[in-house]
Amino acid sequence: MINIVLFGKPGAGKGTQAEVLKAKYNLTHLSTGDIFRYHIKNQTELGATAKSYIDNGDLVPDDLTIQMLEFEANKSEDTAGFLFDGFPRTIAQAEALDAFLASKNQKVNATIALEADDEILVQRLLERGKTSGRSDDQDEEKIRNRYQEYNEKTAPLIGYYQNQNKFFAVDGIGAVSEITRRLSAVIEQL
């Protein structure tokens, strides 16, 4: 099995690339954003709690995120691997993911970061917000708050995965197919 963490700021293209990569490599795509939206749409207790954080542009707490992700991963036993999108976002989440995968005799094989300039990403999200209906994509202040949260809580994961020789940076600007080629070059060397 191959397990990949797709990493990057909101709007970097993780969801778009995940759709391509899951088909190309027969991976199960686990997007915390999709999982949160499912629970919010279906008005589950977990969804209501997650929504209160998301609406303020804050990250959902680790324990809630981990609980939902493990539930989804356990439903996908017959897979060539997992593509984690939007998770982990903190060192604590990375450690929880390592422990969860170790319990299944697996590990994270690589963390691949889609890198892009903040100003480009803000414009991408504001544009996406016009059609997505996502409140966190329609307010520039909330978007910038998400980037501040990312810089404070998520960016330290770079060092965490670099220390394990599992971190790879990829330019996230360009045509979708061009970015896919860059990502595939990393995955195929694993």
Automatic annotation (TrEMBL):
<feature type="binding site">
    <location>
        <position position="134"/>
    </location>
    <ligand>
        <name>AMP</name>
    </ligand>
</feature>
<feature type="binding site">
    <location>
        <position position="93"/>
    </location>
    <ligand>
        <name>AMP</name>
    </ligand>
</feature>
<keyword id="KW-0547">Nucleotide-binding</keyword>
<feature type="binding site">
    <location>
        <begin position="58"/>
        <end position="60"/>
    </location>
    <ligand>
        <name>AMP</name>
    </ligand>
</feature>
<keyword id="KW-0808">Transferase</keyword>
<feature type="binding site">
    <location>
        <position position="146"/>
    </location>
    <ligand>
        <name>AMP</name>
    </ligand>
</feature>
<dbReference type="GO" id="GO:0005524">
    <property type="term" value="F:ATP binding"/>
</dbReference>
<protein>
    <recommendedName>
        <fullName>Adenylate kinase</fullName>
        <ecNumber>2.7.4.3</ecNumber>
    </recommendedName>
</protein>
<dbReference type="InterPro" id="IPR000850">
    <property type="entry name" value="Adenylat/UMP-CMP_kin"/>
</dbReference>
<keyword id="KW-0545">Nucleotide biosynthesis</keyword>
<dbReference type="GO" id="GO:0005737">
    <property type="term" value="C:cytoplasm"/>
</dbReference>
<feature type="binding site">
    <location>
        <begin position="86"/>
        <end position="89"/>
    </location>
    <ligand>
        <name>AMP</name>
    </ligand>
</feature>
<feature type="region of interest" description="NMP">
    <location>
        <begin position="31"/>
        <end position="60"/>
    </location>
</feature>
<keyword id="KW-0963">Cytoplasm</keyword>
<dbReference type="InterPro" id="IPR033690">
    <property type="entry name" value="Adenylat_kinase_CS"/>
</dbReference>
<keyword id="KW-0418">Kinase</keyword>
<keyword id="KW-0067">ATP-binding</keyword>
<dbReference type="Pfam" id="PF00406">
    <property type="entry name" value="ADK"/>
</dbReference>
<comment type="similarity">
    <text>Belongs to the adenylate kinase family.</text>
</comment>
<feature type="binding site">
    <location>
        <position position="174"/>
    </location>
    <ligand>
        <name>ATP</name>
    </ligand>
</feature>
<feature type="binding site">
    <location>
        <begin position="11"/>
        <end position="16"/>
    </location>
    <ligand>
        <name>ATP</name>
    </ligand>
</feature>
<dbReference type="InterPro" id="IPR027417">
    <property type="entry name" value="P-loop_NTPase"/>
</dbReference>
<dbReference type="GO" id="GO:0044209">
    <property type="term" value="P:AMP salvage"/>
</dbReference>
<feature type="binding site">
    <location>
        <position position="32"/>
    </location>
    <ligand>
        <name>AMP</name>
    </ligand>
</feature>
<comment type="subunit">
    <text>Monomer.</text>
</comment>
<feature type="binding site">
    <location>
        <position position="37"/>
    </location>
    <ligand>
        <name>AMP</name>
    </ligand>
</feature>
<comment type="pathway">
    <text>Purine metabolism; AMP biosynthesis via salvage pathway; AMP from ADP: step 1/1.</text>
</comment>
<feature type="binding site">
    <location>
        <position position="128"/>
    </location>
    <ligand>
        <name>ATP</name>
    </ligand>
</feature>
<dbReference type="GO" id="GO:0004017">
    <property type="term" value="F:AMP kinase activity"/>
</dbReference>
<comment type="function">
    <text>Catalyzes the reversible transfer of the terminal phosphate group between ATP and AMP. Plays an important role in cellular energy homeostasis and in adenine nucleotide metabolism.</text>
</comment>
